[in-house]
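Hi all, a correction to my earlier message: I attached the wrong file for homogentisate 1,2-dioxygenase. Here's the right sequence:
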Amino acid sequence: TPYVLKDPYQYQTGLGNFLQSEAYPGAIPLVNNHPQFPPFGTRSEKISGTSFVGPRHRNLHTYVYRPRPAFFHEEYHPYKHHLETANPSPPKHLTPNSYNWPKFQSGPDQDLDWTEQRLFGGNGDPTKKTGISIWIFNINKDMEPNVAFMSLDGEALIAPSVGALDIHTELGKLLVRQNEIAVIPRGVKYRVTLPEGKPARGVTLELYQGHFQLPELGIIGSTGLAHQRDFQIPVAYFDGEFVQDQSSRDGVVATANNGPGWTVIARLNYKLWSARQESTPFDVTGWQGNLYPYKYDVARFSYLGNLSWDHHDPSLFVILTAPAYGKAPGTAVVDFAAVGPRWEASEDTPWVPWYHRNTMQEFV
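and the right structure:
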């Protein structure tokens, strides 16, 4: 996509790869993930995205190295539970009717930030790790200083339809613009600001079970649809400085910019909770693993279509899927698809797709 707003950040590429990144050379220990004395006075911390004994190709985890482990924080307390955005009612309204919603207004009628998303709908139960939820964000201001957010319910797929989001995660920074999507793993802290102060709106799809992954290609072959190399993963960013200290083991000590302390706002079972901690959540000097945030430019999707007649199923447009393990083969918890510009040149076939009574619910 030829963006007017340029991306100032650096990235690694390759969704599913085991990656590593250092904010300072030597920040990641060699061989031993948990040395007694990690480099630069840090501590080893592991973020698990799956069970310990899951199959190797689905076993997601990342080691981070930071001066102060994330374990050290005060007790969580309910956060603004008098507001709908912080304490929404779980989706319960079922209907056989189809709905069309009017276009969302260009900007909120009050000042709202990332913590004030609205629950739109969903299914399943986050406490049982089943299903999904859909949240709408329509924001016009940055998150408050020294405030971070995380979801303990699920993995978030963020899709801005207007504007852009500057997302600072524990593992690095992402600029996510219109026509890009980002995925933030469950439990990873991040902070959202608005580039140039311009409003942004869009959708957050929260996945309660499993993780988003690329769909199988089957007889398509080795290429087509979304390619692994087009997914961008942030590089490590340390909110602090590396100070020369000859009395230390490495001659260098990682010192974080903690300031007056931080507030972490967490979503659990739809509700928001907050806790204080002394250290910045963005004090990671280096990380290694296969569980990380990433983003994708939808314009890089390689569309496939027919060369003769008829319509193919919209599964050809799936960018990311979340398999429903234990269900019928090929069943997904959710598929995220994009129907973008492409040639439609089939014979004796109407351009508009046929009427379809789908077994899955669609949110367009």
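Sorry for the mix-up. The radius of gyration is 22 Å.
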